From TrEMBL:
<feature type="binding site">
    <location>
        <position position="90"/>
    </location>
    <ligand>
        <name>a divalent metal cation 1</name>
    </ligand>
</feature>
<keyword id="KW-0479">Metal-binding</keyword>
<feature type="binding site">
    <location>
        <position position="7"/>
    </location>
    <ligand>
        <name>a divalent metal cation 1</name>
    </ligand>
</feature>
<keyword id="KW-0378">Hydrolase</keyword>
<comment type="similarity">
    <text>Belongs to the metallo-dependent hydrolases superfamily. TatD-type hydrolase family.</text>
</comment>
<feature type="binding site">
    <location>
        <position position="202"/>
    </location>
    <ligand>
        <name>a divalent metal cation 1</name>
    </ligand>
</feature>
<feature type="binding site">
    <location>
        <position position="154"/>
    </location>
    <ligand>
        <name>a divalent metal cation 2</name>
    </ligand>
</feature>
<dbReference type="Pfam" id="PF01026">
    <property type="entry name" value="TatD_DNase"/>
</dbReference>
<dbReference type="GO" id="GO:0046872">
    <property type="term" value="F:metal ion binding"/>
</dbReference>
<dbReference type="GO" id="GO:0016788">
    <property type="term" value="F:hydrolase activity, acting on ester bonds"/>
</dbReference>
<dbReference type="InterPro" id="IPR001130">
    <property type="entry name" value="TatD-like"/>
</dbReference>
<feature type="binding site">
    <location>
        <position position="129"/>
    </location>
    <ligand>
        <name>a divalent metal cation 2</name>
    </ligand>
</feature>
<dbReference type="InterPro" id="IPR032466">
    <property type="entry name" value="Metal_Hydrolase"/>
</dbReference>
<dbReference type="InterPro" id="IPR018228">
    <property type="entry name" value="DNase_TatD-rel_CS"/>
</dbReference>
<feature type="binding site">
    <location>
        <position position="5"/>
    </location>
    <ligand>
        <name>a divalent metal cation 1</name>
    </ligand>
</feature>
<protein>
    <submittedName>
        <fullName>TatD DNase family protein</fullName>
    </submittedName>
</protein>
Length: 252
């Protein structure tokens, strides 16, 4: 299995954890970054565990806009380390923190445009954080600014008509462990075409339901696959194979 979105650099004991995860059948993870320092850390991990990590570099939209100097340095980093980078992410628009941030939505839209153009310039896919009413704005931006860019809407929450637009345009969507216990995500699961479906943990983000008070790791992916197998009445191994294939299509 491949975890299509995890904040790996935020874990402790990464080396021993990766060993454990590999033994349990986790082949790779897409490790995204939150800012410049986090992008450096992710690329360091990529050097160390090159076969296991697909590295993403970016600026998490809920954490506020970076200083211009940081963005410039980040762009140089993307240029220098292009061969080690699998995607630009996590990027997108703030939703949960927008009211608390000192910046306006328009400023975030402008910044996202610059990130999308970096992705396009280096022919890298985008790992997107675009939820609720921001999903449609980001979808429109992709269409207008970088129409041929591959993109993945991670942990998507959006109106059915927006989900349909996203899938009709060939973008990927991932499900998190929430699908095992939350109706909203189960409806989303039924709307994602098999060939555009990814799964992720967004670890170390904590989950509820059967995952309550457990540390989030890629080992949760097998619960998602079991749930989907039951729900879609399909063989677990076929689902796994399809999802791995999809993940490598966009990030491999
Ligand atoms: Zn994330």
């Amino acid at each position: 299995m491949i975890d299509a979105h995890i904040h790996l650099e935020q874990y402790e004991n990464i080396e021993s954890s990766i060993e454990k995860w590999k033994e349990a059948g986790i082949q790779k993870v897409v490790a995204v970054s939150n800012n410049l320092a986090s992008s450096y850390k992710t690329l360091e991990l990529k050097e160390k565990f090159s076969d296991f990590i697909l590295a993403g570099v970016g600026f998490h939209p809920e954490k506020g806009l970076p200083k211009e100097a940081d963005f410039q340095e980040w762009q140089r980093l993307v240029c220098q380390e292009r061969d080690k980078i699998a995607c630009i992410g996590e990027i997108g628009l703030p939703h949960y923190e927008l009211e608390q941030l000192p910046t306006s939505l328009e400023q975030h839209i402008d910044f996202l445009k610059r990130c999308l153009h970096t992705a396009k310039d280096y022919m890298l896919p985008a790992a997107l954080h675009a939820v609720h009413d921001k999903a449609e704005i980001v979808y429109q931006l992709l269409q207008q600014e970088t129409p041929n860019l591959s993109a993945h809407f991670h942990w998507l929450k959006a109106q059915p008509e927006v989900v349909r637009q996203i899938t009709a345009s060939g973008y990927y969507i991932s499900l998190t462990p929430e699908v095992c216990y939350r109706h909203r995500d189960q409806i989303l699961a039924s709307m994602i075409p098999n060939e555009q479906l990814l799964i992720e943990t967004d670890g170390p983000w904590p989950f509820d339901g059967p995952f309550k008070e457990k540390q989030t790791t890629p080992l949760f992916l097998s619960n998602i696959v079991s749930f989907l197998a039951k729900e879609k009445n399909r063989n677990k191994h076929i689902i796994e194979k399809t999802i791995v294939h999809n993940t490598l299509q966009i990030y491999g």
